[in-house]
């Protein structure tokens, strides 16, 4: 497969694309988020994302919907910030490329910092924590390029396959390989 990550929720519907700039937050309290043109915000508001726009994708998800890991890796951070709410961050190396995949606005999470996690393992549950106008999953991917972490469009490295389904198929393939190896060993006496 040419792409390195898998879809963390199913069904997979985008609400906001990478680099879009269509959310503003009120300047006075910093808590009211509205849909707007972030490049030309209305009076009393500023872009939520700044001049670079949205650094991830927003995927439709219902309150409490399970969110699954998009690739094998290690949990390098779990935190809560005003903007992202509760988030889980995973670092992976695939075919020599280093990625960080970040799952934001969660209700809760399953793993702990330092845990090894597999593609298709439960990361947490979707919610509306942080700067958010409704339940969804903000999914962000960064790649380590020229010595620094750079946000990239997750769709550019994501297969059109649900992580949980891929994990199940991969486990079946590994089981079949093991059974074939046992059969060959039995027949050849090795």
Characterise the protein shown here:
Helix content is 14%, strand content 43%. With 190 residues, it is mainly beta. Strands 2, 6, 7, 8, 9, 10, 11, 12, 13 and 14 form a ten-stranded antiparallel beta sheet that branches. Strands 4-3-5 form a three-stranded antiparallel beta sheet, with no helix packed on it. It has a two-stranded parallel sheet with strand order 1-15. β13 and β14 form a beta hairpin. The chain starts with a strand and ends with a helix. 33% of the residues are buried.
Spell out the key features of this protein.
190 residues, mainly beta, 14% helix, elongated
In brief, what are we looking at here?
The protein is mainly β.
Please give the count of helices: 1
User: Roughly how much helix do the residues carry, as a percent range?
Assistant: 10-25%
Form type: elongated
**Largest sheet, strands/sense/barrel:** 10 strands, antiparallel
Number of strands: 15
* Percent of residues in beta strands: 35-45%
CATH homologous superfamily title:
Glucose Permease (Domain IIA)
How far apart the termini lie comes to 32 Å
Name of the CATH class: Mainly Beta
Regions with little confidence, pLDDT below 50 for 5+ residues: none
Write the element-wise H/E pattern from the N-terminal end onward: EEEEEEEEEEEEEEEH
What is the name of the CATH topology?
Glucose Permease (Domain IIA)
């Amino acid at each position: 497969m040419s792409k390195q990550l898998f879809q963390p929720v199913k069904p997979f519907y985008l609400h906001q694309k990478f680099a879009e700039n269509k959310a503003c937050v009120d300047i006075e309290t910093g808590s009211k988020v509205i849909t707007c043109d972030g490049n030309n915000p209305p009076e009393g508001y500023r872009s939520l994302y700044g001049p670079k726009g949205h650094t991830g994708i927003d995927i439709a998800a219902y309150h409490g919907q399970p969110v699954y890991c998009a690739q094998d890796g290690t949990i390098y951070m779990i935190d809560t910030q005003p903007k992202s709410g509760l988030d889980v961050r995973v670092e992976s190396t695939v075919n020599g490329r280093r990625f960080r995949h970040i799952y934001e606005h969660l209700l809760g999470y399953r793993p702990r910092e330092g845990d090894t996690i597999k593609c298709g393992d439960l990361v947490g549950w979707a919610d509306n924590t942080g700067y958010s106008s409704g339940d969804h999953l903000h999914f962000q991917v960064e790649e380590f390029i020229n010595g620094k972490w750079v946000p990239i469009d997750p769709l550019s490295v994501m297969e059109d396959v649900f992580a949980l389904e891929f994990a199940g198929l991969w486990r079946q393939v590994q089981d079949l390989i093991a059974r074939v190896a046992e059969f060959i060993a039995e027949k050849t006496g090795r």
